[in-house]
């Protein structure tokens, strides 16, 4: 027995041009079941979710929201009413993996999370019936190919905790680097180094959410191109260092 959201998601992937074989492998659902849904999709009775309200830990949620928008996904359980949240974290940043798991446990009403090692990265995974409600940006297809907007209650949390949101976005799709240049001073060539932050994302909506949060905290930024945001001014970099810092 599959819930309606699982059925609709499988059919949406087929509608996007994926083969029945590919969707079956991805979801664990038989091709025969998917084919039958193409002919008839009936609503299934669903027990109502308890209204847990917005997450109590706003700091953890704002950070996790940033991670989810960058490197997260939600998928339905093939034979249950619950959903899996997965956040992909590169092996290079063990501190980020720890912070991600801590945030997931704080936000998940069950308090549970675990790690799945893959080649070059770790997926922090957590199961709950509440994930689609907590992250209503969930939907079929890639995030940059559909509209991404925050619900009013999410925006209220981001407005209250902008630095945590910025930190989550940068931990997923950003970096702090050190540039250098050679200048001639009093006839002597000297090397100067200066740090800057970059954020890269294919979604114009997620870019807008990031830059709006930067505006709120007084960080100056520039568009390097349609996909990249650069933060290079000394005062703004200092603000970022104080509240975000490099990944570790």
Task: Explain what this protein looks like in three dimensions.
This protein is an alpha+beta fold and 248 residues long. Among the domains are: 1-46; 162-243, Roll (Endonuclease I-creI). It contains 10 helices and 8 strands. The protein has helices spanning 4-15, 20-27, 31-39, 58-71, 94-107, 131-134, 152-160, 162-173, 204-217, 234-243, and strands spanning 72-76, 83-90, 114-118, 121-128, 174-185, 188-200, 222-225, 228-231. A 4-stranded antiparallel sheet has the order 1-2-4-3. β7 and β8 form a beta hairpin. α4 packs parallel to α8 (162-173) and α7 (152-160) crosses α8 (162-173). The model is unreliable at 41-51 (pLDDT under 50).
Outline the secondary-structure elements.
Blueprint: H1 4-15, H2 20-27, H3 31-39, H4 58-71, E1 72-76, E2 83-90, H5 94-107, E3 114-118, E4 121-128, H6 131-134, H7 152-160, H8 162-173, E5 174-185, E6 188-200, H9 204-217, E7 222-225, E8 228-231, H10 234-243
Antiparallel strand pairs: 1-2, 2-4, 3-4, 5-6, 6-8, 7-8
Largest sheet: 4 strands, antiparallel
Q: Please give the CATH class of one domain.
A: Alpha Beta
Low-confidence spans: 41-51
CATH topology type of one domain: Endonuclease I-creI
The strand order across the widest sheet is: 1-2-4-3
Radius of gyration: 21 Å
């Amino acid at each position: 027995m599959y819930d309606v959201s699982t059925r609709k998601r499988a059919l949406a992937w087929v509608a996007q041009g994926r083969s029945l074989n590919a969707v079956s492998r991805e979801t664990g659902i038989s091709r025969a079941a998917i084919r039958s849904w193409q002919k008839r999709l009936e609503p299934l009775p669903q027990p109502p979710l308890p209204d847990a309200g917005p997450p109590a830990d706003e700091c953890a949620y704002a950070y996790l929201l940033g991670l989810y928008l960058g490197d997260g996904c939600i998928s339905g359980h093939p034979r249950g009413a619950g959903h899996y949240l997965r956040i992909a974290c590169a092996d290079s940043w063990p501190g980020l993996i720890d912070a991600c798991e801590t945030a997931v446990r704080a936000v998940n009403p069950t308090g549970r999370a675990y790690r799945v090692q893959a080649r070059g990265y770790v997926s922090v995974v957590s199961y709950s019936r509440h994930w689609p409600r907590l992250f209503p940006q969930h939907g079929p297809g890639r995030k940059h190919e559909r509209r991404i907007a925050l619900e009013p209650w999410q925006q209220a949390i981001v407005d209250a905790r902008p630095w945590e949101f910025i930190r989550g976005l940068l931990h997923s799709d950003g970096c702090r680097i050190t540039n250098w240049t050679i200048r001639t001073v009093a006839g002597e060539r000297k090397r100067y180094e200066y740090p800057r932050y970059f954020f890269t994302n294919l979604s114009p909506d997620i870019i807008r959410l990031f830059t709006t949060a930067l505006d709120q905290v007084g960080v100056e930024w520039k568009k390097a191109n349609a996909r990249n945001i650069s933060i290079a001014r000394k005062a703004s970099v200092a603000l970022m260092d104080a509240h975000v810092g490099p990944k570790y």
